[in-house]
């Protein structure tokens, strides 16, 4: 049975939108990479003087200080460049694609989809295979054995121990279920469809609960936890004690969040447990809202 005109038009509209998004995202990332390359080649800040000054003021050894002005510049460049470039390219590609016929859109859709997926896979692989920057000067036993980012994040996991099962079984199976979800869903009887929906909701709810529980702790005993935890907890303690941010040079790497959380901790008291608990709740809320947004938008 041939598609109705309305169904065919909707399908072409989805393909046009998908092509525009993929091309715009790739073009925006390419634009940022080009500008970042220029910044990397032309911007060479002097961090030695900052480290020397910090070592004079702090009792901590100077090796603990790693000022990153170039990284900050690249981050701000990405924040500004990628949204503007994506919007501009999207408007451009949308206008160009309106001149394409349905046959041309269908011919473009598959290869562009494949290129976008390969881009994600290659970028993810490159990031995971990059060298662990802390391996040579390892602050803990975990960094000593982790030569790459892949080993740092996954060395003790099922994924790392059984990569073949994940690559050739679990991942393709999940991709096929997503790709053919609608045809499979339509073949299920009503009761089985409801049960499958409940299982999906239960799985997503379980992930949100897991995110909540793994972020709550009483004290960070390991060195990486203490080192990373102090970056977010110190500012909270100071603001809770009455020292306002952005006054007398008191800044925070992660923004003004302590001022927004002070009213909560005035009620609960501030400790490692309450702080980690509030942050865990905020993480769970974020993931829950992401789920609700995706559920509403994706069909």
Please summarize the sheet with the most strands: none
Percentage of residues in strands = under 5%
Given the structure, what is the number of helices?
13
Rg, rounded, reads: 25 Å
The low-confidence parts are none
Q: What order do the helices and strands come in, and which of them pair?
A:
Elements: H1 5-42, H2 48-57, H3 69-97, H4 102-129, H5 141-145, H6 149-154, H7 158-161, H8 163-179, H9 181-187, H10 190-214, H11 223-240, H12 257-268, H13 272-297
Helix pairs in contact: 1-3, 1-4, 10-13, 11-12
Describe the structure.
The protein has 299 residues and is mainly α. It contains 13 helices and no strands. It has helices at 5-42, 48-57, 69-97, 102-129, 141-145, 149-154, 158-161, 163-179, 181-187, 190-214, 223-240, 257-268, 272-297. It is globular.
Describe the structure concisely.
With 299 residues, the protein is an all-alpha fold.
Structural descriptors:
75% helix
């Amino acid at each position: 049975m041939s598609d109705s005109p309305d169904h065919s038009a909707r399908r072409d509209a989805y393909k046009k939108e998908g092509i525009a998004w993929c091309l715009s995202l790739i073009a925006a990332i390419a634009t940022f990479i080009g500008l970042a390359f220029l910044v990397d080649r032309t911007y060479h800040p002097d961090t030695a003087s900052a480290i020397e000054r910090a070592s004079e003021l702090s009792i901590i050894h100077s090796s603990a200080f790693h000022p990153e002005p170039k990284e900050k510049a690249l981050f701000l460049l990405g924040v500004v460049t990628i949204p503007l470039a994506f919007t501009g390219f999207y408007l451009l590609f949308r206008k160009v694609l309106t001149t394409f016929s349905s046959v041309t859109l269908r011919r473009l859709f598959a290869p562009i989809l494949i290129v976008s997926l390969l881009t994600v896979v290659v970028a993810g692989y490159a990031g995971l295979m990059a060298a662990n920057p802390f391996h040579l000067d390892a602050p803990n036993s975990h960094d000593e054995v982790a030569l790459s980012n892949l080993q740092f994040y996954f060395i003790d996991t099922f994924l790392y121990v059984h990569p073949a099962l994940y690559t050739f079984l679990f991942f393709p199976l999940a991709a096929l279920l997503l790709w053919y979800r609608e045809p499979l869903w339509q073949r299920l009887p009503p009761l089985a469809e409801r049960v499958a929906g409940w299982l999906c909701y239960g799985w997503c709810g379980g992930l949100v609960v897991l995110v909540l529980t793994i972020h709550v702790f009483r004290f960070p005993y390991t060195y990486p936890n203490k080192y990373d935890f102090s970056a977010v907890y110190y500012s909270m303690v100071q603001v809770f004690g009455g020292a306002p941010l952005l006054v007398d040079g008191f800044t925070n790497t992660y923004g003004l969040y302590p001022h927004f959380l002070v009213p909560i901790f005035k009620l609960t008291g501030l400790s490692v447990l309450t702080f980690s608990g509030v942050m865990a709740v905020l993480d769970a809320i974020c993931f829950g809202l992401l789920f609700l947004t995706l559920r509403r938008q994706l069909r």
